[in-house]
Amino acid sequence: MLILGIDTSCDDTSASVVEDGAKIISNIVSTQDEIHKKYGGIVPELASRRHIEMILPVVDEALNKAKLRFKDISAIAVCQGPGLIGSLLVGVCFAKSISYFNKLPLVAVNHLEGHIFSSFLEDPLPEFPFIALIVSGGHTNIYRVNSFGLYKEISRTRDDAAGEAFDKVAKLLGLGYPGGPLIDALSEKGNPETIHFPRPFVDKSFDFSFSGLKTSVLNYVKKNPNAKKEDVAASFQLAIIDVIVTKTIEAAKKEHINGIVLGGGVSANKALRRRMEEIAHKEKIKVYLLPPYLCTDNAAMIAAAGFYHFKEKDFANFDLNPKAYLPL
């Protein structure tokens, strides 16, 4: 079965064809980094306008690269949310249009579910049940995944997501946008032990909170204007990684699960990947890491999750509406 996936949840316009939820035939992503870079973050109105311009050529390119036409497609899978509502509207309306015109089944996919099932696009495949850490610009969540459709939320962030904290600290340091990769690269040149930023733990909970850590970096930079950016970046990154890794490992131990899947843009962070593998190895827990292009937003993950909705005959109607807030 060939699923055409469409994702316009944030600032990337993406379309992908995936076979049987596992084999990527094509995966096209049009980024908007150059548009939003001068603002230091995503401008929702500009993002949705760009999606309108790019959605048709991106879908055409995905089909052309796969050497397929709409008549060869089994179903359309589209990200319904969560995300920026204006951006989501573009993808959902386009998906409904091509579904109606080509008489193809339509399935709605939760963006977080897509990140979870991106792990089924690479070998080795995780075995159920497993722990999924979704860490991105908009989310920092831990789930217990028992099987397709059976998810238990263990934790979420109570304020800033990890990726949002990376972007804001990068802007504070004058590094640019997107902040995550820039801080990751700069940290390689710094000493993470130079500054001891607080590790924000929420008592008796696996929830995250990064707002205070971000404020701590701001206060330090104000008091130490000549501090080396490399050391500030490395010390901040270590603090945020310590919290993420510790809570994820502890969640896996509490749930008696020995497999952890990482998804979301921040899971491409090299220091996070090294630290997670190091600690997990000591605890005899298997970590499933994806190549960076599958960590960030892409339509292949939407198509992969959409395949399982299609198998379950879980179809959407043409009254489908996007949702900025959509719990998994």
Can you characterise this structure?
The chain is α/β, with parallel strands linked by helices and 328 residues long. The longest helix has 26 residues, at 229-254. It is globular and about 60 Å long. The protein has two domains: 2-116 and 295-311, ATPase, nucleotide binding domain (Nucleotidyltransferase, domain 5), CATH 3.30.420; 126-289, ATPase, nucleotide binding domain (Nucleotidyltransferase, domain 5), CATH 3.30.420. The two termini are 25 Å apart. Helix 4 crosses helix 11 (299-311) and helix 5 (162-172) runs parallel beside helix 7 (211-223). The protein has helices at residues 33-36, 44-66, 85-102, 111-117, 162-172, 179-187, 211-223, 229-254, 270-282, 292-295, 299-311; strands spanning 2-7, 13-19, 23-30, 75-81, 106-110, 130-135, 140-147, 150-155, 259-263, 286-288. Helices cover 43% and strands 19% of the residues.
